[in-house]
């Protein structure tokens, strides 16, 4: 059951002397026990994630000598980890204390001696300070190390290469410095390497090419320099995510990147890369598929470990973190570099693309009509380049497009403001002085000409009907009586007799009036 709440006291447990498995994970229970409480049970499995156990570290754990699995994640613990905890149980295999407010440093004692069977270790999302101790290398059974999102400093210890069973190493979001250890190449089983958001410097060590099983390589937001080595395209045949964004890499994009046939995410933004975008990117086969495999399937063998892959993606003008929905991300981000050359038409053959960002470069040429083939495209940012020509009308067919930025280019002519294109505001097209039409306030010249011609046509049409109606009325007034009188002789005689009488009466009235006036003058 999930989502339950309430308070648990010592009385709820005092008869449970045979309890070995306590799983109340993903609930909101509040544990209210005394600081000297000794439980009547000996647990093997304890899962209390999201329950309120803190603020102090639970002292009653000292009595639990048989623990193998312990999960106290998101448990509102804000104290430091006591020294006795590391000697809690030699049987401990699974330890997760993530997303608390834990303080202090990690121990530098030989914890491998006390925890020889530990295979999963996570302290992510806490406030742990200090360096990563060399003693971590003594935990030789570890498969997962997650120290992400803390305040760790110093360099990555070379002893970590002793953890030869590691499949996931996540040290991201800390303040680690120095160079990436060359000795990491001894982690032959490594699938996921996160060193992002640190202060690491230097070039990528060539020894990393020996990590042939890598699926995810995230080195983003560091101070790494040099060229992106060509061997990245050949060393990692199963690579799904490659993120090197926000470093100081220079030189040209390696053509061999196209060999990464499993790649879903290519993020090289915010570097000093130059030259043309390789036409060989069209060979990124996984991006050409409409349906992509779930990244979670990479870790079926660790399904019970509860490690959650995550990635920072800048898209739709926002900085987003993807976790559960990471498998839906198919992205190319080469923005904020010094790339040049024409728009790479081959990209339009990557039918599975969801996000495409080539902004803030020096790319020239036209947007090809074939861009309409990217039916999965949700975000397209080509702003701050030197693109020119008309915006293709075929873009109106991109029914999934929710974000568009074509600003600060040299586009011209009328915006095809139809279909999906009619959903975007003026900001999507700003900074193109030769663009016109909705949603811009600038009207196209042909729109004014068409209006003038239309008014003239309408005016001429009205005039023609006006004169035609006058002519028809005149003709009807003359011809109709003529034909009627011509057809009936008796009507004709009666008509002219009537006319004669009227004329005679008018003449008579005129004579009478004249006679009266003449008499008055006399």
Summarize the entry for a quick read.
The protein is an alpha/beta fold. Helices cover 16% and strands 22% of the residues. A 15-stranded parallel sheet has the order 2-4-5-6-7-9-11-13-15-17-19-23-25-27-29, with no helix packed on it.
Can you walk through the features of this model?
The longest helix has 43 residues, at 445-487. Strands 2-4-5-6-7-9-11-13-15-17-19-23-25-27-29 form a 15-stranded parallel β-sheet, with no helix packed on it. The chain has an eight-stranded parallel β-sheet with strand order 8-10-12-14-16-18-20-24, with no helix packed on it. The chain has four helices and 31 strands. Helix 3 packs across helix 4 (489-521). Strand 6 (94-96), helix 1 (111-114) and strand 7 (120-122) form a beta-alpha-beta unit. By secondary structure, it is of the alpha/beta class.
Multimeric organization: single chain
Tell me the helix content.
Answer: 10-25%
Q: Got a strand count?
A: 31
Give the terminus-to-terminus CA distance. 131 Å
Strand order of the largest sheet: 2-4-5-6-7-9-11-13-15-17-19-23-25-27-29
Mean pLDDT: 87
SS element count, helices? 4
Largest sheet: 15 strands, parallel
**Derived structural class:** alpha/beta
Strand residue percentage = 15-25%
Instruction: Report low-confidence residues grouped into runs of 5 or more.
Output: 299-304, 449-462
User: How would you describe the shape?
Assistant: elongated
* Rg on CA atoms, Å: 42 Å
